[in-house]
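Annual report, structural modelling task.

Input specification for the zinc ion complex:
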Amino acid sequence: MKLLVFGTAGYHPNETRDTACLMLPEQGIVLDAGSGMFRVRGEIVTSTLDIFLSHAHLDHIVGLTYLLDVLHGREMSRVTVHGEQEKLDAVRDHLFSKHLFPVDPPFESAPLMVGAAQPLAHGGQIRSFWLPHPGGSVGYRLDWDDCSMAYVTDTTASADADYVDVIRGVDLLVHECNFTDELQDQAVLTGHSHTTPVAEVAAKAEVGQLLMVHINPLATGDDPVHLGKARRIFSQTSVAHDGQVIEFGN
Ligand SMILES: [Zn+2]
Ligand SMILES: [Zn+2]
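The model returned the following structure:
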């Protein structure tokens, strides 16, 4: 399975990272619609697009306003944005307020049944689950016959959290890691994760590999999450970068 990494920053873009956006092009699936969303345009190979939102903070939805360009000239049979009902309402009422954006949203909305599995348009299934975060967030587990992944962002990581059992055994865990351990207080205050608990989650859930995203945009050095520390807990850990292509599963 191919995963395209379009946005790996949390909060705001910087010189090398846009905000949250991932794509599974063969499945017509986009995970979050941050500023990296503009890159979807060049990778569409399906006639449907299903965009799954973790929540409605701006770094995860601003790219929905890019869809007029992303879809320009494309013959799409359907474009659907999935999220919790109250988040979809907020997107429609606020992001697509005439004061913020001049045109009606070019997609249909579908409320999530959080906790229930639902079939995906091109095979496999997706299941959402609650994550603790100010205002609430949801994570996703995606399963196909021969591979699986989970997307967990905008939450405080803990090996004791309920979601660890839900993501158990996936081939690829994409998990936020906005802060280093030194900024644990900031992580707790803002409902985000820091290095050690993220690696502990991956180890306890026995995933195949861990890919860290939602990186602090102020951490512009070579080692924004102290990768060596994470790898001592879970060796198959890496830090995502924009433009990365990941192959996972068989
Ligand atoms: Zn975020
Ligand atoms: Zn958030």
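The chain has one domain: 2-247.
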